[in-house]
Amino acid sequence: MKTIQVNEQLKQDWIQVLTHIANLFFEDCKLYETVEDPDLSVRFQYKMDNNTYETACELTANGQIYSSHYTKHYEIEGSLREQNIRMKRALSHVLLDVLEQYTGIIQQWGILTGVRPTKLYHKLRKEGYHPEEIREILKRDFRISDEKISLMQSIVERQLETIPDLDEIGNELSIYIGVPFCPTKCAYCTFPAYAISHNRKAGRVNSFLDGLHVEIREIGKWLKENNMKITSVYWGGGTPTSIEADEMDALYKTMFESFPNPEKIREITVEAGRPDTITPEKIEVLKKWRIDRISVNPQSYTDETLKAIGRHHTVQETIDKFWLARNSGMNNINMDLIIGLPNEGVEEFQHSLDETKELQPESLTVHTLSFKRASEMTQNKAKYKVADRKTVSEMMEMAQQWTRENDYSPYYLYRQKNILGNLENVGYSKPGQESIYNILIMEEVQTILGIGCGASSKFVNPNTGKITQYFNPKEPAAYIMTFEEAIDKKIAMLDDLYNVQMKR
Questions:
Q1: From the centroid of its chain, how far is CA 430?
Q2: Of 19, 401, 413, 476, which one has the greatest count of Cβ atoms within 10 A?
Q3: Same domain assignment for residues 5 and 112
Q4: Domain closes at, from 115, 149, 183
């Protein structure tokens, strides 16, 4: 861990932002006003006068001094909140600059540390800026590289082709349904994923499913009464295909009976990410309800890696289950690969790409490993040897080249804290095979209503874009005890958000 002494007293929220910038370069870096024997020392100067923000920074390391200066003028004064954001951005500029000088590492995402970069691009687009103007703003104000800006632009253009009414879709909503069970929990995972065999024995699977049926019916009742259109439905978790075929069938029956105009839902997706949960019987249930978009996620095509991360299935099983789905009529299959898994380098990742080429799924999501705070991998880092920044970057370049060569184009991306190499997660697809839900959840342009265990609801005001969140309990036992209360709270929030709007 690197320690950096800041030779001024700064606002706490400024320190938080500057810590994020420092962590782009050093793992677990912390900034202190006073600390014994710091690794680095920084001094800031800053002022705001007549809407002009001016910052400077000096970094002292090993007897050398690195310096930077930044000035930005705004035409409009802005609120106190906006002024604070502007100053944090100006301070981030100079800290990033001196750290790039010191380390020799160029951050292609610049000062941007948020999860959704393309949301910023959409914002500028909606404000009337042309692509070249947007490029200039992103380079000048956020220090984003040309390469990443081009990636953002191509994704935004693809999203608008996939959802032409993206700017007006806030009057509809989408639904996420969480089933919190998996055969085992993967070492990198922080999603609600509980061993189904243990919970089955404890009676929590049946109790959870009973509650989920009730929640689907009650939410569906509100949607019908208020004539709400559903854009997409996403079954996630956990692994929704962990439950039995007859249990899946019953849930989909409840969904189609409860939701308004189910035949008009643009997309229904079921995560079947663990190949060891896929059976011919479950495939038949999906076909029965005309659900043909599923995920079959290898993550890696190296058996030793799968064993190390707790996947508890083999590479061959992934391949077999893919072909089971394909030969049964599933014509929109997504697969996930993770860059930077333990003990994997360029050779192993190339093997994964070669295997994927043989399968040709309709879409491929390439994730960069992130050390999520609650994961087993993060809590036991010494146990898991992962690739260095240079190797991870090389693997991402390999993925980009492979997708181009195999007729895949990027259509959504997101970033995470503690992501290896400060890179990104990118979803690629064949033409016309983009996931509508993935675009909507990333761009936050409409309400995503969460149902089930661990489901997060994001209520997006169609007029202002303001987001209000509500979280269902992550643990099955807690969900079983509180799902009725959660239904009442979400319906009250829906009433407040939509009924008022519709009466005006």
A1: 20
A2: 476
A3: no
A4: 149
Tokens of residue 265, six digits: 């839902």
Q: What is the mean pLDDT of residues 396-419?
A: 91
Tell me, yes or no, whether 465 lies in a domain: yes
Domain that holds residue 488: 169-494
Q: Where is average pLDDT lowest: 56-65, 191-200, 303-312, 342-351?
A: 191-200
Whether residues 83 and 188 fall in one domain? no
Q: Where are the beta strands (DSSP E) in 344-423?
A: 363-368, 409-414
- φ, ψ dihedrals at 267, nearest 5°: -160, 135
Q: Does 32 share its domain with 83? A: yes
Query: Cα-Cα-Cα-Cα dihedral of 191, 192, 194, 200, to 10°?
Result: -150
pLDDT in tens, 318-334: 999 999 999 999 999 99
Structure tokens at 53: 């923000």
Same domain, 352 and 208: yes
Contact 141, 172 (CB under 8 A): no
Q: What is the pLDDT of residues 422-438, one digit of tens each?
A: 788 999 999 999 999 99
Buried b vs exposed e over 152-179: b needs ≥16 C-beta within 10 Å? bbebbebbeebbeebeebbebbbbbbbb
How many domains, the chain? 3
Beta pairing class for 230-237 and 194-195: unpaired
